């Protein structure tokens, strides 16, 4: 069933667990994630960035259709919505949650822009997530991680002012691959949990380490965003049967190869079936 993200996260917060939020780009991985969620009876949050698929509306129809058929609760979240326009499009495309990422802006500007989207989203029953502090890129972790941690007192004010449903926190994780070992600030997480009364989100779950992640999920994190590790696992699985050269380790390139394979096969069978030119 397709639900607002808030509904899933409120349950997770009550139960003291986190919901995985893998990034998806197309029907291939959306189906894979839903199958696993059903197999393991887990709620699921499908996260997608606006440029993941060439057409947000087509993609939205696929995801919402599959999610409605799912036998477990599924939310569909716009990951890192960077503009007001993209948030509007996502809502029209059927997303049940939008993340409004204004974490690089000064506090007041972050609040103002988040509020604008929250008002619109809530008017149609869509949840909203925003980020305070800034979760950087893994390769820059050593230089920009520390200075951008979430401030617990400011987080409380931010949640009250914006009325968001979930707060993405910066406590030492980073997007993409890490340079070195991430050091999660569990003391800081505890302070944020004590001052904020809505579900918390951890971005940059990949490469954070199972022990770190499990501890974070028991300590107040209710949603873990996962992208790099999902794509890496898919590529590793592929490499078992199809060797990929160095420098080609990019899942986005491989989607295209897959697609070409499907198209070639169908071209063949259209001819075999004799349906060419009959439409
Ligand atoms: Zn993120």
TrEMBL record:
Entry superkingdom: Bacteria
Binding, Zn(2+) 1: 80, 175, 203
Keyword terms of this UniProt record: Metal-binding, Zinc
Cofactor: Zn(2+)
Keyword Zinc: yes
Annotated positions binding dihydroxyacetone phosphate: 176, 204-206, 225-228
Co-factor binding comment: Binds 2 Zn(2+) ions per subunit. One is catalytic and the other provides a structural contribution.
Residues at the catalytic site: 79 (proton donor)
Residues the entry annotates as binding Zn(2+) 2: 101, 131
Gene3D superfamilies (UniProt xref): Aldolase class I (3.20.20.70)
GO biological-process terms attached to the record: carbohydrate metabolic process
InterPro entries for the chain: Aldolase_TIM, Class_II_FBP_aldolase, FBA_II
Membrane-traversing stretches: none
Protein name: Fructose-bisphosphate aldolase class II
Organism of this sequence: Pelolinea submarina
């Amino acid at each position: 069933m397709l639900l607002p993200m808030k509904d899933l996260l409120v349950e997770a917060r009550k139960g003291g667990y986190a919901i995985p939020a893998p990034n998806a780009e197309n029907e291939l991985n959306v189906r894979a994630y839903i199958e696993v969620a059903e197999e393991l009876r887990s709620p699921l949050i499908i996260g997608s960035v606006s440029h993941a698929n060439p057409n947000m509306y087509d993609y939205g129809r696929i995801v919402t259709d599959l999610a409605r058929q799912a036998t477990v609760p599924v939310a569909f979240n716009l990951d890192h919505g960077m503009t007001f326009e993209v948030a509007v499009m996502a809502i029209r495309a059927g997303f049940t949650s939008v993340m409004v990422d204004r974490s690089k802006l000064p506090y007041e500007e972050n609040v103002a822009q988040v509020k604008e989207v929250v008002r619109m989203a809530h008017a149609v029953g869509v949840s909203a997530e925003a980020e305070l502090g800034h979760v950087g890129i893994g390769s820059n972790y050593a230089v920009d991680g520390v200075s951008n941690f979430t401030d617990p007192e400011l987080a409380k004010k931010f949640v009250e002012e914006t009325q968001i449903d979930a707060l993405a926190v910066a406590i030492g994780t980073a997007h993409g691959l890490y340079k070195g070992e991430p050091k999660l600030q569990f003391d800081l997480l505890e302070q944020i949990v004590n001052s904020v009364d809505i579900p918390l989100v951890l971005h940059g779950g990949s490469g954070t380490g199972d022990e770190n992640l499990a501890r974070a999920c028991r300590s107040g994190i209710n949603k873990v965003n996962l992208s790099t590790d999902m794509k890496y696992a898919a590529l590793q699985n592929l490499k078992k049967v199809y060797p990929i050269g160095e420098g080609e380790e990019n899942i986005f390139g491989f989607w295209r190869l897959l697609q070409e394979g499907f198209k070639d096969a169908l071209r063949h069978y259209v001819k075999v079936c004799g349906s060419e030119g009959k439409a």
